[in-house]
Specification:
The chain is an alpha/beta fold. It has one domain (3-173): Nucleoside phosphorylase domain (Rossmann fold, 3-Layer(aba) Sandwich), CATH 3.40.50. The protein contains 3 helices and 8 strands, in the order E-E-H-E-E-E-E-E-H-E-H. A 5-stranded mixed beta barrel has the order 3-7-6-4-8. Helix 1 runs parallel beside helix 2 (124-134). The radius of gyration is 15 Å and the shape is globular.
């Protein structure tokens, strides 16, 4: 299998039957992606899912090429920066200077965060890191389902349907 399509939840891809689901959050995503890699041995992993926009004016489907852990916070220990895992050589993952930055964390964002990223999700950093460590090409497309504010939970379900249709059209260009 050359390409493996993954999404966190089936709710994010209604009508798209070519996806494998890895679960919500960084731990579920990591565990299930490793199982899929072992089984299928893909050359490329393509992630699609929903994301909240931090950067004003973002909408539709965007490609993320820079990945950060927004909830890794050991800033009180020595001189670590927000997002930096102690004694881990990988602090950020940058696949290209073109594209958007994504801050992943195990929380649903409904307000301001302390990291300068374009959008937020719950899995992309984990997926990007596994792919980097396993030397597998990784591409990540996110549908801006909300603005990471108080209305985020209300917008999510309905917007996932719109995003899946847009992604299905976009994938033909990939």
């Amino acid at each position: 299998m050359n390409k493996l399509f993954v999404a966190a939840l089936k709710e994010e891809t209604p009508g798209l039957d070519y996806f494998h689901y890895i679960g919500a959050g960084k731990i579920n995503a990591t565990y299930n992606l490793v199982k899929l890699i072992t089984k299928f041995k893909p050359k490329e992993i393509i992630n699609f899912g929903s994301a909240g926009a931090i950067k004003k004016g973002l909408s539709g489907i965007v490609e993320c090429t820079k990945f950060y852990q927004r909830d890794m916070d050991v800033t009180g220990l020595l001189d670590f920066k927000l997002g930096e895992t102690p004694f881990d050589e990988i602090i950020e993952i940058i696949n290209s200077d073109h594209g958007y930055s994504c801050g992943s964390g195990d929380s649903f964002v409904t307000g301001k965060i302390n990291m300068d990223v374009d959008l937020v999700d719950m899995e992309a950093y984990a997926l990007a890191k596994v792919c980097k460590l396993e030397n597998i090409k990784f591409r990540c497309f996110k549908f801006i389902s909300d603005n990471a504010d108080d209305n985020a939970p209300l917008d999510w379900i309905e917007n996932c349907k719109k995003g899946a249709k847009l992604f299905d059209n976009k994938i033909k260009d990939i």
